Amino acid sequence: MHRLRTCAARLRPLTASQAAQTVGPQRPITITSTGGTRTFQPIRCYTAPVASEPFLNGTSSNYVEEMYFAWLENPKSVHKSWDVFFRNANAGAPPGAAYQSPLALSAVPQLSSLVAAQPNVEKLVEDHLAVQSLIRAYQVMGHHNAQLDPLGISCVNFDDAPVNTGFQDVGFYGLDESDLDKVFRLPTTTFIGGSESALPLKEIIRRLEMAYCQHIGVEFMFINDLEQCQWIRQKFETPGVMQFTLEEKRTLLARMVRSTRFEEFLQKKWSAEKRFGLEGCESLIPALKTIIDKSSENGVENVIMGMPHRGRLNVLANVIRKELEQIFCQFDSKLEAADEGSGDVKYHLGMYHRRINRVTDRNITLSLMANPSHLEAVDPVVQGKTKAEQFYCGDNDGNRVMSILLHGDAAFAGQGIVYETFHLSDLPSYTTHGTIHVVANNQIGFTTDPRMARSSPYPTDVARVVNAPIFHVNADDPEAVIYVCKVAAEWRATFHKDVVVDLVCYRRMGHNEMDEPMFTQPLMYKQIKKQKPVLQKYAEKLIAEGAVSRQEYEEEIAKYDKICEEAYNRSKDEKILHIKHWLDSPWPGFFTLDGQPKSMSCPSTGLTEENLNHIGVVASSVPVEDFTIHGGLSRILKSRAEMVRNRTVDWALGEYMAFGSLLKEGIHIRLSGQDVERGTFSHRHHVLHDQNVDKRTCIPMNHLSPDQAPYTVCNSSLSEYGVLGFELGFAMASPNALILWEAQFGDFHNTAQCIIDQFICPGQAKWVRQNGIVLLLPHGMEGMGPEHSSARPERFLQMCNDDPDVMPPLSEDFAVRQLYDCNWIVVNCSNPGNYFHVLRRQILLPYRKPLIVFTPKSLLRHPEARSSFDEMLPGTHFQRLIPEEGMAAERPEEVKRLIFCTGKVYYELTKERKTRGMDGTVAIARIEQLSPFPFDQVKAESDRFANADLVWCQEEHKNQGYYDYVKPRIRTTTQRAKPVWYAGRDPAAAPATGNKKAHLVELRRFLDTAFNLDAFKDQQ
Ligand SMILES: Cc1ncc(C[n+]2csc(CCOP(=O)(O)OP(=O)(O)O)c2C)c(N)n1
Ligand SMILES: [Mg+2]
């Protein structure tokens, strides 16, 4: 008993005062860190009369302590001899008896179980554990107590869970006031000691308060990776980390001046204009600049940014460095637009700028992507563009190209696309190797308080799902802001993972400059009115510190005001607004110097027989050795080989021919979407899986020729909005790539409606940038129910910009010119040959347009839906309309009815016509390109069958499908000489019936109508 007490007392930490009495003054330790030079007083010492152990002497006492604490934490972490020694000592072995030589360990019986552990050892262990818990509590929850809100009215709701940190709460951990002066060894999971390994509890708490409860709140303990947690702890806990040089402080002040005075200048000149100013979050500008400087220092050369309205003009001016006059002239309502299209409001336009980073003296390209009002919609687009830039410059780890996304607090929490985008962040074919997210958290969304806008404490909680650290920071402390931004940039450079900076700020004005915020947030805005602007606060701090004089500060302001004033004067000379100057993704060399296509023609999209054969052989083989494929797949490949021998293609092979040939021509192809590698309908099989070796795959398409472009085919996450946005962004980077997104079924595209409506359809009109993305949308009424049937062609067609009532002038380059004028191309091919051509045309055209393809399901295996090599040879083209070529064409004057249709229903119509023996009386023409509408060919076809009435037949319901689109256009081709009758399903709310029988009855009914030559007599 006595022995145990002695042993424990020997190892127990002393109070600081005891320590001082026992050992007297010690030499202070001086260390130099990045934060400057600091001096520490060593406080930790022990009075252990270790000499009573014969094998110990005074100089080894530290070592014993190390061993003892390590043993306390984990007995297995020390050598067995130490384990036995401590157990024996604890068990009451007299001096000299506790130690056993390692050699004797196995021979001598151990004393460990002789005496039970005694209470003071337990207390010692408990106290240490308590201190560890306290440290951990700060690391986990310190941010709850951080002073993050500049207004001091924070509404972050942690469900009132108590946060037990601070002096007053040590009791929670089983410690009491008397422990505050005791010295405790610090665990390896904290860096608050700096070079010291033990501190008095009071100092431990003080340092933890400094690290976690000031103007920075670090949320990271949910991260599952110990190395990453340690890295963050070190960045925020190490004493003195937040030191700034004089130079850094002065640069920061200058940046704050620019940010603040820019908004003031706009307010002064255009007080009645909306600009979604940054007032209340001015430190956003130095924040972004720090991220860019630091990243440039780490080797980044290209930064792609996406951001909403708030502070966008300021970012353009002071981060991207758009010429100020170009920004100011946007406020001039008399400015004429030089470009075609609708243009867009000034706070949506994009920008691309290459310049020297003044801090690092390195070249950097900055682009801000144009975006719609739809908050957060640009997030995946930025990611896709970033991925593409990385891909094309061989930056496999994201060391040279990176993205920054800015968010508003309400949108970040509320918009599901944020979550979808986060979930792309670590997928091999979608990762951009870490995005830095910056939230301008002004604690309000338009007029809505956070407590009504989200169910999570912070607006940033969504980032936790991908283990992204979140740095909350009080935006009224610019130095704290800069520090977290530096850490965020370093985090990205080190771990290549996402990170979030939550700038907690306020919004000085209303939602826009015209809005009255006092209607809805009276108390908040009373507080805001009292709030001293951050620039003023920071300037006063630096003046008080002597870092800058008042005169220097005032000169800095005057200097920037003068820059603004001069730019304003120059802006008055601008007469014309060039949206082209706001291009976020230029395609050097693709257009002529004045931005026009280099020609207005499209060469043949056909291929040589040899080429078709070669690609066909690769498509039906396994190009690597010792690779076992599934037996069913062997049969598929065999039948492909058989088709190649027979000079025909089915749908999958037609696609293969198009992809393969473009790859051989050096065009990169990327096909992305849910389950695209195999194909939803198990027809594609672009990735072969070895049946015997886990994860061994082969992509035959990448074995076409040594100098081919790479083929990327990737199954995506189960997201449409995110993935389509991503692919759209990918397609922006280069015109020399074919980027395709396939919906699992066409219906599902509507969860990506925002990308379609706001980017794909009007992108060129709003932002003068072209995009050649291809959407593959499986479509067709096959009795599968209301879903899985319709890709909603009516919606795409309704958004086409061709005029239904005007017959465009016919010319030699009619088809190519018409395509040039359209906002997108909508096709529904009825055979694989035509699908092949339209894919190839997409690249061979001298410009880029989005292509919407309604793709088949049952036609994938339909024996008639095949094309001969003859239809794909040199000289052949995509057929916008496939005219009647059968019996009816032989005596066109005898034809009573001309049915126009599109897609799969053609096969149902021809079958029915044959059954009824009406091949000579009814002609059937397929409109393969719905938009732009082939006015010329429809006219030729209706002229050919001059005695026929005209019917539009579709399998979709009357209020859906194509009818509303084609009817006025067909009538225009005949100068409204003839009606266009309808044969198809009746109007309906749902796209298709869920009842198979009803489906067949409907089919029968409309086929009867289509072939009943008297069906429309009553309506005439
Ligand atoms: C998807 C979408 N829904 C609604 C709106 C309308 N709207 C514009 S700004 C805004 C509030 C945004 O709040 P927040 O994200 O916090 O940004 P802040 O304006 O506060 O900077 C809303 C609801 C929108 N632009 N986009
Ligand atoms: Mg907000």
UniProtKB/TrEMBL annotation:
Q: Does the keyword Transport apply?
A: no
Q: Name one GO molecular function term.
A: metal ion binding
Query: SUPFAM superfamilies per the record?
Result: Thiamin diphosphate-binding fold (THDP-binding)
Entry's EC annotation: 1.2.4.2
Residue intervals of the Transketolase-like pyrimidine-binding domain: 649-862
First-tier enzyme category under EC: oxidoreductase
Q: Which domain of life is it from?
A: Eukaryota
InterPro entries named among the record's database cross-references: 2-oxogl_dehyd_N, 2oxoglutarate_DH_E1, DH_E1, KGD_C_sf, ODO-1/KGD_C, THDP-binding, Transketolase-like_Pyr-bd
Keyword annotations from UniProtKB, A to Z = Calcium, Glycolysis, Isopeptide bond, Magnesium, Metal-binding, Mitochondrion, Nucleus, Oxidoreductase, Thiamine pyrophosphate, Transit peptide, Ubl conjugation
**Can you say where in the cell this protein is located?**
Mitochondrion; Nucleus
- Cofactors (names): Mg(2+); thiamine diphosphate
Question: What's a BP term from Gene Ontology annotated to this protein?
Answer: tricarboxylic acid cycle
Q: Which GO terms describe its cellular component?
A: mitochondrion; nucleus; oxoglutarate dehydrogenase complex
Tell me the PANTHER family matching this sequence: 2-OXOGLUTARATE DEHYDROGENASE, 2-OXOGLUTARATE DEHYDROGENASE COMPLEX COMPONENT E1
Q: Which NCBIfam families match?
A: 2oxo_dh_E1 (TIGR00239), PRK09404.1 (NF006914), PRK12270.1 (NF008907)
Q: Which family does it belong to?
A: Belongs to the alpha-ketoglutarate dehydrogenase family.
Q: What is the protein name for this chain? A: 2-oxoglutarate dehydrogenase complex component E1
Q: Which organism is it from?
A: Sander lucioperca
Higher taxonomy: Eukaryota, Metazoa, Chordata, Craniata, Vertebrata
UniProt lists the gene as ogdha
